[in-house]
Amino acid sequence: MFRFHGMNYDTGIKREWLVANGLGGYASSTVIASNSRKYHGLLVAALNPPVRRTVLFSSIDETLCIDDEVFDFSVHKYPETVHPEGFKHLKFFEMDMFPCFVYEACGITIKKTVFMEHEKNAVFVEYDILNPEKICGEFMLRPLVTHRDFHSNMRRQQVSFDCDFINDVCSVTDGSEHVLSLAGDTTRFVKSENWYYNMEYDCERLRGLDYQEDVYSPGYFIDCFKENKSLCIAAACQSHGYNETALSDVVLNWKHVKDTELDRRKKLVERAGYTNSFVNMLVTAADSFIVSHDKYKSIIAGYHWFSDWGRDAMISISGLTLATHRFDDTQNILRLFADHTRDGLIPNNFTEMGKSKYNSADAPLWFIHACYKYLECTADVAFIKKHLWHTIQSIISYYRSGTDHVYSDTDGLIVSGAQMTWMDAKFDDWIATPRAGKACEINALWYNALKIAEHMADRFGEDSARYMELSLLVKNSYKKFWNQSLQCLFDVLAENADDSIRPNQIFAVALPFRVVSDKHAKKIIETVERRLLTPFGLRSLSSNNPCYKKNYCGDARSRDASYHQGTVWPWLLGAFITAYLNIHGQNEQSLKYVRKLLLPLTQHLSAAGLGSISEVFDADQPHRPGGCISQAWNVAEMLRLVNEYRGVFEQDSL
């Protein structure tokens, strides 16, 4: 559990919370309930799960009126001012399963809790009077509404709202498919339309994006707490949520909804089987990334703005689903991407409109790796053979013969285009980190894919000779990557070999089938450790390179320029630790070292996106977090380490 006291505006907006609903939608804000991003909102609904995220219910203004005194609990940023300053009444914020805000005014203590119903575009805001004997006034709750794509902002002149009140439910429409329904269990609704102009989102300003918007309110709910110690406001949309009639019934039964979701989350933790609080936080975070996608499941790459990405999903499977014993979800995720395979490629990502993009040379190879990890974990040969073996064979066949911007050269090594690896930042037509040619990690993955296919063919009683022969050619050709002068691997082999020291080479040592010798593996680890290792992961480029960027900040072009040019990536720490233990063994000295490596990330769980791990960190100290507040493969790699090295990690020491 996290608890924070005595916050002002500047300290309060640095920590954020998020509650996901299993559809790609979520509720999220800061610990002082002030939206600092356009992505924040109490109901950000996925209208076509897990995409088309739409901010419908932005926030709620709470006002406690006692005699002639008025106490506002909300916090909004306007040009050059913050108003109201509700954080002054915030006694503390805490988060266990759900975010809770405890306010105190005039001797009255009110606890607010935000939760969502699983696989429903519906949010519930509960208020409890902790000392009901002292209540002697009115409590007004004014919902603030925006109907917009979560990448954009809203202005009054762009939208016209209609507000109807039927069967104790307030319905807000904007003339499109967007219908937001609001209801209270004991409150009465008062129609009182209002607009709030020029609200500002500080994070968007720092990112060089549009950071102002206008917000609409249809009215307010009011309650005197005369007969009840608690009340609840519910909001939902009709798409994968509730219509007006259904919501009026559901809000009366909100305690059951809350208990059901609490029970679901507790069972996920129990199923995972860990006892350490740090690990269980990650188990809960893992659940937020697993979402519905058509008839299957998928993995959101990161919150707030990423959709489901093939590469990220395949890398994350080992930690998010296998380490938490969610084997049915693993099957569904693998089948989703197998069903969307085209010419040997799986989708790099699905856009907000649900379309597939196929610009990744490593995602299909990570898919084969994920199939192997599933087989290794479950021994479920039948599932692999029935549902995935054909896709694995197809990927290898297309890579050998050639597909979109990917082909096998005469030496067996894979050649791919400039923007086909995970270092794929692009601004307009400018590729920030072009890596056309034979990338070291792509070919380490390619070697592993061939060895995995050989292993599976043997398990299925099929001919494995062609995979074995090609893997021998690839392993022999991989020696070309060795950079004798720097004692590590070239990053990319092309007309001129790229001697940039990057973390990609660590996969040559970390993957299940090692493609380099023990001697070279030790040198790779030494170089990566000396030049790239930080407390929060591996730098994407060594600091002595002229292209090195020490900070990840600024507008979109500036951020893309530094994204893979020094910026630290936590997920790579998992590969480094696995590589280190592969070479140095799981002895007490190695164990002590690895525990030390993990400690900063455990402390980070309370620093930015609560209970999760930020996408990236600045390359230079103090390694400020950036990007998404909660990144799937970062959480996944920590869980994978704990799961795969249970005999090494004493969980109480993490």
Describe this structure in words.
The protein is an alpha+beta fold and 654 residues long. The chain has a domain at 2-264: Beta-galactosidase, Chain A, domain 5 (Distorted Sandwich), CATH 2.70.98. It is 33% helix and 29% strand. A hairpin with a 4-residue loop joins strand 30 and strand 31 (488-489). The longest helix has 21 residues, at 381-401. The radius of gyration is 26 Å and the shape is elongated.
Compact summary:
The protein is an alpha+beta fold and 654 residues long. The protein is built from 17 helices and 38 strands.
- What's the mean pLDDT score? 95
In DSSP terms (H or I, runs of 4 or more residues), the helix count works out at 17
Number of strands: 38
Q: List unreliable stretches of 5+ residues.
A: none
- Major β-sheet strand ordering: 1-9-10-11-12-19-16-15-14
Portion in helices = 25-40%
Please tag this protein with its features.
654 residues; alpha+beta; Beta-galactosidase, Chain A, domain 5; nine-stranded antiparallel beta sheet; eight-stranded antiparallel beta sheet; 17 helices; 38 strands
SSE layout and pairings?
Layout: E1 2-5, H1 9-12, E2 16-20, E3 26-30, E4 41-48, E5 51-66, E6 69-72, E7 75-78, E8 81-85, E9 90-95, E10 99-105, E11 108-116, E12 122-129, E13 138-149, E14 162-166, E15 169-173, E16 179-184, E17 188-200, H2 202-206, E18 212-223, E19 230-237, H3 244-250, H4 254-272, H5 277-289, E20 290-293, E21 296-299, E22 302-303, H6 310-322, H7 327-339, E23 349-350, E24 356-357, H8 363-378, H9 381-401, E25 406-408, E26 414-416, E27 426-427, E28 430-431, E29 438-439, H10 440-459, H11 465-477, E30 482-483, E31 488-489, E32 492-493, H12 507-510, H13 518-531, E33 533-534, E34 537-539, H14 556-563, E35 568-569, H15 571-584, H16 588-604, E36 616-617, E37 625-626, E38 630-631, H17 632-644
Antiparallel strand pairs: 1-9, 2-3, 3-4, 4-5, 5-6, 5-13, 7-8, 9-10, 10-11, 11-12, 12-19, 13-18, 14-15, 15-16, 16-19, 17-18, 20-21, 22-38, 23-24, 25-26, 27-28, 29-32, 30-31, 33-34, 34-35, 36-37
